[in-house]
Amino acid sequence: MLILLLGIIFLHVAALVLLFVSTIVSEWTTGEMGTSDLWKNCTLDNMGHICNAASTGEWIQVVQAVMILSIIFSFLSLILFFCQLFTLQKGGRFFLTGAFQILAGLFVMSGAIIYTVMSPGWVPEKDTFGYSYILAWVAFPLAVISGLIYVVLRKRE
């Protein structure tokens, strides 16, 4: 049972770290002339490396919001898990913890989908998706799987 709990906690923390990194790091799209992410666009020209704030379009603000919500819900889910671990009755399920973690996964999926659909009008065609974007997509199944494990998991003595 201890190994199972440690595995679940490791999976949850891995998803949370991926959410943090994908939201903070400036590599959602990358190309020869620079990078862009949720917060700023950096370009390279003859004067050097120049960074400007991200577009003020509604879609990028929605992506920023759902990525932050995914981090908040995943963090709250981890706290709830530890609280329920000590207060839940024997045989009880971790429904609230699982629901919060599944919501975190759905938020990150929504953010990545919106970015995928809307970024071609904002990013040059030569640019490709960077590793932060890929980490967001990797965090999605990890968060959903850990949420489903929480829903199925029963507390034992």
TrEMBL record:
Protein name listed in UniProt: Peroxisomal membrane protein pmp22
Record's keyword terms, sorted: Membrane, Signal, Transmembrane, Transmembrane helix
InterPro entries (UniProt xref): PMP-22/EMP/MP20-like, PMP22/EMP/MP20/Claudin, PMP22_EMP_MP20
Major subcellular location class: membrane
Name of the gene this protein is made from: PMP22
Position of the signal peptide: 1-26
Subcellular location: Membrane
Top-rank taxon, per record: Eukaryota
Membrane-spanning intervals of the chain: 62-82, 94-118, 130-153
Pfam families: PMP22_Claudin
Bilayer disposition of the protein: Multi-pass membrane protein
Similarity comment: family membership: Belongs to the PMP-22/EMP/MP20 family.
